[in-house]
Records
---
Amino acid sequence: MAVMGRDRVLVETFGDEGAVRIAKQVLLVALGVAALAIAAKIKVPMWPVPATLQTFVVLSIGASYGMRLGLVTLVAYLAVGALGFDVFTGSSAEVGGLSYMLGATGGYLVGFAVAAGAMGALARAGWDRSVGRMALAMLIGNAIIYLFGVPWMAYLFLEDRGLAWVMQWGMTNFLVFDALKLALAALLFPALWKLVGDARR
């Protein structure tokens, strides 16, 4: 396969197309982990509770990186958090990585990885190139996150606090912000899908 543009310069410099491709993917994973960590700490004032941009970044990584690289990025992010680095929402370093991951947000963290993979598969099929399909893909991605997150919340809190509390604090409080993120992604990605290039495949 012909190598063009900046990739041609890199190949001519380092002499190995495969090595250049791997280096690009490693860099994308590192950038994705950093973006997820930053997004987890950014609080957006919303009613009734503040929200973060983390779900938006998770689904954006899946859509822009593709299924395989998106999933690898999320697994790397979870591994960094499990090692005790403060990359999750709140002060996860004080709790301890694995302890935090077994807490209330544990199901959502697993859902992040699955949703990123699903978004990558949908983007590979071309869903990120039209507003309507990208909106539907974001809806599916959010649903996957809740599919893992809410049952884990129920497992931890249903007996003590009841189903209404679990649904409110596990999903309902965040639906308005989810709708805004969905609209933003649906408008942005059809115009930006080429930025990552062949590294997503």
---
Amino acid sequence: MHALVVFFDAEADNAVRTLWRRIGAKSELPPHLTYAAAGTIGPRVRNELREDLSRLWLPDVWLHTLSATENTLQLGAVVDSELLAVHSAVHDILAGRVKHPNSRHLPGNWVPHCTLLDGEDTDVKAAFAELHPISPIRAKAREMAIVDTQTGGIDPLKNASTAPR
């Protein structure tokens, strides 16, 4: 499976990693927000994404809400019109061009978040208790990339510092 993700700036990255350490969580990937996921996001679509993303500004997100769902502890992002506009634009590019899109990331279903822990129910409950109440984290977009969730390979698409404002 391939995922289109945004990695965070150093300060937000460090803040999330600090939370991971507090609850004993480990992750193969740096802290991130997933915009889309599909069985395959091929090379042609990636090139189209690179071109279209060069005209988009990647908004900062506030990771603000601690929640637990389906044995996952997550830090939810505040949803605003800028975040939804970028999400919609990404899916306009991907529509009909990827194989097996993951419905959880489609417009109308998407709950933007950074995963803190995947585990057993008792572990998630204990981690929630350890972290609650949470201090909001302002996460600036550092880079948008395609991640191969099987191999961990990362294909950068856009460096946020080159984004138009």
---
Amino acid sequence: MLILFCVSGIVLNHVDWLKNDKNNGQISTPIPSALAAKANAQLSTLPTLYPEIEAYLAKQYALTNVKSIEWEKEDALVMLDYPLPAGFAYAELDFISGTLNLDYQTGGFLSLIGDLHKGRHSGEAWSWVIDISAVLMILFAITGMIILFQNRKKRLAGIWITVLGIATPVVIYLCWVPQLKGVY
């Protein structure tokens, strides 16, 4: 996990590498007949079918965690927006024509690890992976410091290296990173 977060951190620092790392696609397929029949019987109350529509898209295309659902009553359209790590899926169910149009974008490996690094649209399970990894890395650092303080021969050099490791990014930040000053 440490290597994954280090590599993805480098990728995030060079977002220009991700310029051509996206793939767009579209699927057009008939709406399942059972769902279309229910919808045609209840065109004026299509929102009551949202759970069934979501269940169908989850089963057929593994789409979960819908961001938004819109309904155009006069055109009998239901539109669902799904954010994904490194992409998105946008489903449009046209109950008049009986067609499901699914537009999607997926990212390549670099885009994917960048979004996983940030936890962007990756779900609760991945959020736990990030948190547990961070806690373990903190524990590794603390236990490393404890081991350092127990080693008399290398303690002084280790303390100086630690101070240098803390001071260097602080100095770089204060001297070379653009920042707004004088506003509080």
---
Amino acid sequence: MYVVIILSVFFISLFYAHFRGKERLKLSRQFFDHSTFLGPVNMFMTGFSRLPPDPFFDPKEFPELQALQDNWQLIRDEALQLQDQIKAAESNNDAGFNTFFKRGWKRFYLKWYQDTHPSARQLCPQTVALLEKIPSVKAAMFAELPSGSYLGKHRDPYAGSIRYHLGLSTPNHDECFIEVDQQRYSWRDGEATLFDETYVHWAHNNTDQTRIILFCDIERPMKWKWAQSFNYWFGRNVMSGASSPNDENDKTGAINKIFKYGYAVHAKGREIKAENKRLYYIYKWILFALLISIIMIPAML
């Protein structure tokens, strides 16, 4: 009975994630995607959300964020002083964005589902002061997309937040854009957008200028207080485990402490795939079957 329940939950989560929106990842990729494994949580978040099931939202519906847009030049100036600090992770300690670094994407964390990073408080105090006055901002960073960079199609794993982008230093050109569920937005200096990052999205900077934005996770507004409390708890106690440091003074979350070991397995898998693709997929499905077995065996005893 427990085995049936576990399998049912997994496949319901798989198809929920796969059919969310117009754009889809390949089913074989969605099968192993982190958005599938967070499917039960995400069904709760979207089911009890006060927001409509749309890819983009009007920032005017979130008036508390206006202070960021009003002070975008101040935020931009602090971001531009951090050119040596906005960078890729120096070791495999950023599970959430690890694949982005390969294509040139860079970041400087301001906060991640808990307190402000000490490095951010020291290096960009005015931006931090603005963010700390807005409780709905659960995570924030400066994000850089260099000229020619491309982020492939993907879903972010967690529906308890929505994504806020504020243009700071951008090409101000339609060839620098993000596309969310087949709807395209091009960044402009001083302008903001809000979107649901659990829809398939991708980005491309096809200009000769680097794009720098303020990137925030905004807590999804829920229909009832008890649902909002659960969203807050999950972010604080689970999502905070993906915290990644800017330097040695910042904390590394539990997820990222474990990630380096998983990354070593992934790196070995890439070597095998380069040598023998068929063997790679055999190993991949065997590992997945073992994982399912580990989950199910206690329920069968």
